[in-house]
Design brief:
Blueprint (H helix, E strand, L loop, with lengths): L3 E5 L3 E3 L3 E2 L4 E5 L8 E4 L4 E3 L5 E5 L1 E4 L2 E13 L6 E4 L5 E3 L1 H4 L2 E8 L7 E4 L3 H4 L2 E8 L6 E9 L1 E6 L3 E9 L4 E4 L12 E3 L1
Parallel strand pairs: 1-4, 2-5, 3-6, 4-7, 5-8, 6-9, 7-9, 9-12, 10-11, 10-13, 12-14, 13-15, 14-16, 15-17, 16-18, 17-19
């Protein structure tokens, strides 16, 4: 098998183990209320065996596990401008600490040029210790990344169009912490790094 793409107009649910040989793409969403969730049942595992996994959705329910090995996990939003939240934050598409702890991947990318703001609150080191590098991309015009409380990652890259705010502490325990608060290199937005 090569690359596999699964798309649902309402909700997409993976109920058993899914072993992919090649890149895997999961997409769910339309304009209906309550639609657009990608879910993985408890006890189930998505294993891409070193290939990439791309998820585009309005919501994520991760009761099972994801293992991309040397491949990447790429998480974006189905509808333009939707926020992404990690840890204890609760706006838009939410990935909780428990859900992060079920991910094993070399690189995890959250957000892209279609995403809204990215909010990070209280991400635990025990939740990200199986994720090599986390990259946060709030690249849509006027979108930002904000950190509240204390969060820990192995390695962290953060890019935003309209600033990065840190109200607490952000720690990396293995690699570098890289922050780019003005990814488009313009002076039209409030492109600053705020330490509060």
């Amino acid at each position: 098998l090569g690359a596999v793409s699964l798309s649902a107009g309402k909700n997409l649910s993976i109920e058993q183990n899914f072993n992919a040989v090649g890149d895997l793409s999961l997409e769910s969403g339309d304009n209906s209320v309550g639609a657009g969730n990608v879910s993985l049942n408890a006890g189930s595992t998505i294993n891409t065996q070193g290939s990439n996994l791309t998820v585009s959705a309005k919501g994520l329910t991760l009761n099972g596990s994801i293992d991309t090995g040397s491949g990447d996990l790429i998480l974006g939003v189905y509808d333009s401008g939707r926020d992404i939240s990690l840890g204890n934050a609760s706006s838009g598409l939410v990935v909780t600490n428990d859900e992060l702890s079920r991910v094993t991947t070399t690189n995890a990318y959250f957000g892209d040029s279609n995403s809204g703001n990215i909010l990070v609150e209280g991400v635990l080191g025990t939740s990200t210790d199986a994720i090599g590098t986390v990259t946060l991309n709030a690249l849509e015009e006027s979108k930002n990344v904000s950190f509240v409380g204390d969060s820990t990652f192995n390695t962290l890259n953060v890019s935003a169009d309209n600033g990065i705010s840190i109200n607490g502490s952000v720690e990396t325990v293995v690699g570098n912490l890289t922050l780019d608060a003005d990814v488009d290199q313009t002076t039209l937005d409030n492109d600053k790094l705020y330490l509060e």
